[in-house]
Design brief:
With 228 residues, this protein is of the alpha/beta class. It folds into two domains: 5-16 and 91-221, Rossmann fold, CATH 3.40.50; 18-83. Helices cover 47% and strands 12% of the residues. The protein is elongated.
Length: 228
């Protein structure tokens, strides 16, 4: 029997991406204390407030303004944020799903974002031993990443699986679901962290209330055991 695969998005699908932001803010706060003597609790509080209020991109500017620090420091803080060694833990549910699928499915990840940053997340989460291949989408095609077809086709080719026997799991209707369907993959929209609209549900083959639902849904979309 031909092999089959389940491919996952990373951020907001296998783990909460805000955990990376919190880890990065802590690293930046420590550097600001070292360079300027501002207590890290105070700078971290400003950054966390920006994250909660949907102003994530302005977090470092907020710190510079609040504590009278040079605006030019923002670029160096951003570099620390991107290159720090993140403190992340793969949620037990994600680990359980990958473990349950692994005996009879090939497993992959396709993720947008700066490849170096995404690779550091994958290392921190310990994903190399749980999946067969991780594709950093911006390394393929024109560099725009998902939903362009190149990264989806690359993961199928790397896994040696036809797109028609591949199930893609993600939280983004456009980047994940529409992109995967565009190359002939089956799709599962994970809507547990935000309500799925009727339009979102129409785009995906099926909608999962949580990641735990992926195992039976994938089996329904591409039935029958296979050799890895």
């Amino acid at each position: 029997m031909k092999p089959r695969a389940v491919v996952f998005d990373l951020d907001e699908t296998l783990y909460r991406e805000r955990r990376f932001a919190i880890s990065g803010y802590a690293a930046v706060a420590r550097e600001i204390e070292r360079a300027h003597g501002v207590p890290p609790r105070e700078t971290f509080r400003v950054m966390a407030r920006a994250l909660r209020s949907g102003r994530r991109r302005e977090a470092f500017q907020d710190v510079a303004f609040r504590f009278g620090l040079a605006a030019g420091s923002v670029d160096s803080w951003l570099a620390i944020y991107r290159t720090h060694r993140p403190l992340l833990r793969l949620p037990p549910q994600s680990r359980a799903v990958l473990t349950a699928l692994r005996p009879s499915w090939k497993l992959g990840i396709v993720t947008n974002g700066l490849p170096t940053v995404q690779a550091s997340k994958a290392r921190a989460l310990g994903l190399a031993g749980l999946v067969d291949r991780i594709v950093y989408a911006e390394e393929y095609g024109n560099g725009r990443g998902k939903p362009d077809a190149d990264a989806f086709l690359a993961i199928a080719d790397d896994l040696g699986v036809e797109t028609a026997r591949t199930v893609f799991v993600g939280d983004d209707p456009a980047c994940d679901v529409a992109g995967a369907r565009g190359v002939g993959m089956h799709t599962i929209l994970v809507a547990g962290r935000r309500p799925a609209s009727a339009l979102d549900r129409d785009v995906a083959d099926v909608t999962a209330g949580s990641l735990a639902d992926v195992v039976p849904l994938a089996e329904r979309l591409v039935p029958g055991g296979s050799e890895r």
